[in-house]
Amino acid sequence: MSDVERTYNVLFLCHRNSARSIIGEALLNSLPHIPLRGFSAGSEPGERIHPLAAELLTSMHIPTHDLYPKHWDVFARDGAAPMDLVFSVCDKTLGQTCPNWPGHPVTGHWGIEDPSQVDGDATMRRQAFRNALHAMRTRIQLLANLPIASLDRMSLQSEVDAIGRLEAGNPVGTET
């Protein structure tokens, strides 16, 4: 299989692997006709997907039945599928020592505010999850539009770093 035809594995990391990283995995895998496959994991995975993350994904007709929090060591074991891209989506994982990933992936930080930490009424909490989903979707769409197969490693690293600097809702080139 040539690089043009291959599928690239993308791992989203978050401390509990119950909201943002799960949303990233589900969103990426819901996009048709792209050569990217999403996975997610955490350093201290929760017991289940956050109910508001599951509710939001379900409302968008994105399947959640195969999603569950898992420890990131699952993806560092011998025989694990090599990851091509690994993104931390929370500041807690950014500061932790990650395993050595098979495949020596390009890594990046796509920091997204933790919606599960928002205080307030149900409407405010649901809006926080929608905001996180919007930020993740924007970044995933930019990633999906990259000509990954034709980029060298340094160029790909530069592109994923630029995507990570985006603020939700800001177009490319207006990062803050």
UniProtKB/TrEMBL annotation:
> Which Pfam families does UniProt cross-reference here?
LMWPc
Instruction: Read off the InterPro entries from this record.
Output: Ptyr_pPase, Ptyr_pPase_sf
Family matches, as SMART domains: LMWPc
Query: Enzyme class, one word?
Result: oxidoreductase
Record carries keyword Cytoplasm = no
Write down the EC number.
1.20.4.4
- Gene3D superfamilies recorded for this chain? 3.40.50.2300
Q: Which CDD domains match?
A: LMWP_ArsC (cd16345)
The Swiss-Prot or TrEMBL record annotates one GO molecular function as: arsenate reductase (thioredoxin) activity
Keywords in alphabetical order, please: Arsenical resistance, Oxidoreductase
Question: What name does UniProt use for this protein?
Answer: Arsenate reductase ArsC
